[in-house]
Amino acid sequence: ESVAGFKAVSGVSNEEWLDAGQCTDCYLPAFNYRPAGSAQYALALSNTSEETPLRFRFGLIASSDNHSARPGTGYKEFSRGNMSDWWGFKSSLFRNLFNGSPGAQLPKAFPVKMNELSAFNRLELERASSFFYTGGLVAVHAESRSRQDIWKAFKERRVYGTSGKRILLSFTLMNPPNTANSLPMGSEVEMSEEPIFRVKATGSLKQLPGCPDYSFLSLGSEEIERLCKGECYNPDNQRNLIEKIQIVRIFPQIHSSEIMGDLIEDNWLNIDCSPNPDGCELTFSDPEFTKLERDAVYYVKVFQEPELTINGNQMKCEYDESGNCQKVDLCLGDDREQSLQDDCLSASPGLAWSSPIFIDFKR
Fold first, then answer.
1. pLDDT digits 0-9 by tens, 294-340
2. Count of C-beta atoms within a 10 Å radius of residue 319
3. Would you state the pLDDT for residue 132?
4. 327 in helix, strand or coil?
5. pLDDT digits (tens, 9 = 90+) for 134-155
6. Cys-Cys link to 167, which of 186, 286, 323, 352 (CB 3.0-4.6 A)?
7. What is the pLDDT of residue 315?
8. 167: how many CB neighbours lie within 10 A of its CB?
């Protein structure tokens, strides 16, 4: 039966778990992150039981909403309880009622069955509150804004995701065979030559406080306050800077015995960008493609200059000299220490992920 591991040790507070079970080098990671559930793992995975391997070939998007039905709230980082999610008890009465007594600190583990716990006791609500973010976005390279063209672009994987900022991103293969045209992100092609790629990224527009005048004409001040809490998407004419571009290279498995960690190069190329409000543009190639003679997957991560972000530093660990977490400052969602008024802001870059370009080696 399912077991809630965090309940197996008695008398332990949420803070004592420190950063156990968390991805410590991921960008805005999911709570209790599972590596084998990542997009990179899936892109490297192959079913080699047949002559032609079966593989995942999907695009990357990041659109999301929250439990207050507000989509794409990452345009500004504010009002954590409305623009993000939080979980917790609004009074010590309910916290003690549902959690019960932590029990004595005993030097042994207890078997805990999920069906013996109350619904609220099955989840690490207080630790999870440090991992709720504002909503991301999906961007589409469509031929027009018509419904038909937008869905066509989705089906062809001409899409990318952002952490919530409206970053502009283009990723193309410049030298596909048998055509003078470049191929966009999401494409799959078979070739034997060294692939050449082009990336162009432009930062999102900086935001002005409040809402533009036309918002009030459409919705009125009361509805603006209810829906947007007085802060709308309100772009200035200046853009945020792109700081760096990272190229990810992944080799899909040839046989099942290959180790996944050896096939995923998350930081294959890392290019720092000069400060330029017009963005960052680069061309790169993979000279190893023809030498290795194996299929490869490429996609791009774009980092925008940091800004204060809800839960940008998740558990806010204090580290010792060896890099071990010694103390955490959880972003709570209950009545303690005015946590409901704390947006838990820390500096974090905006990020955009392109859909992959899939290149099979032509023999």
1. 999 999 999 999 999 999 999 999 999 999 999 999 998 777 766 77
2. 12
3. 94
4. strand
5. 999 999 999 999 999 999 999 9
6. 352
7. 94
8. 26
Please list, in sequence order, all residues whose beta carbon lies within 8 angstroms of the beta carbon of residue 106, skipping any fewer than 6 positions away.
10, 11
User: Which residue in 300, 285, 203, 291 sits closest to 250, CA to CA?
Assistant: 300
Local structure of residue 128 (DSSP, 8 states): H
CB count within 10 Å of CB 346 equals 16
Tokens of 276: 């330029």
Q: How far apart are CA 313 and CA 130, in angstroms?
A: 8
Residue 310: other Cβ atoms inside 10 A: 26
Q: Is the dihedral of CA 170, 176, 182, 188 positive or negative?
A: negative
Distance between CA atoms of 105 and 10, rounded to whole angstroms?
5
Which tens digits make up the pLDDT trace of 1-20?
Answer: 344 567 777 777 888 889 99
Q: Which two tokens stand for residue 309?
A: 């972000």
The CA distance from 80 to 253, in Å, is 41
Instruction: Say how far apart CA 27 and CA 312 lie, in whole Å.
Output: 9
Name the token pair of 330. 């959880």
DSSP 8-state code for residue 146: S
Output phi, psi for 177, to 5 deg. -75, 150
